[in-house]
Predict the 3D structure of the following.
Amino acid sequence: MNNADFDALAIGAADARNKAGEDAFVRAALDLSHWYFIGVSPPDAPDEPEPMVAAGTDGHRVLVFTDESRAEGYRDHLGAKGKKCCVLHMPVGDAVEYLNFLTDHGVGSAHFNDGKGSATVAIRRVVHLAGA
């Protein structure tokens, strides 16, 4: 599945009344081998980057990318603003487990592919569809 396919699915997922569209987006993402994250290092562990969590209007969310080139573009965007970060990749199964872990720490949603073609999905929905 290419970026244009994910962009089209994101349009369907963006309509809050369209759970079928959201499910289609998440299922397509779950079929990938890896997800990509923007890694940032906490001050007390500069050599141990963790996936970036951002504050949104509906609470905290983790940034997830379905394509490494999109993650690299976002990393470069932040780097141009002076933010030190890197691209992390995780097998999808591990990423779903990590998202589930984040719910215990106040993160409620996964924001996929920030920018054009983005979709924000409740982590509990992602975990449910993954069968985890």
User: Anything to note?
Assistant: The helical segments are 3-14, 19-30, 68-80, 92-103, 123-130. Strands lie at 34-40, 50-51, 53-56, 59-64, 86-91, 107-112, 119-122.
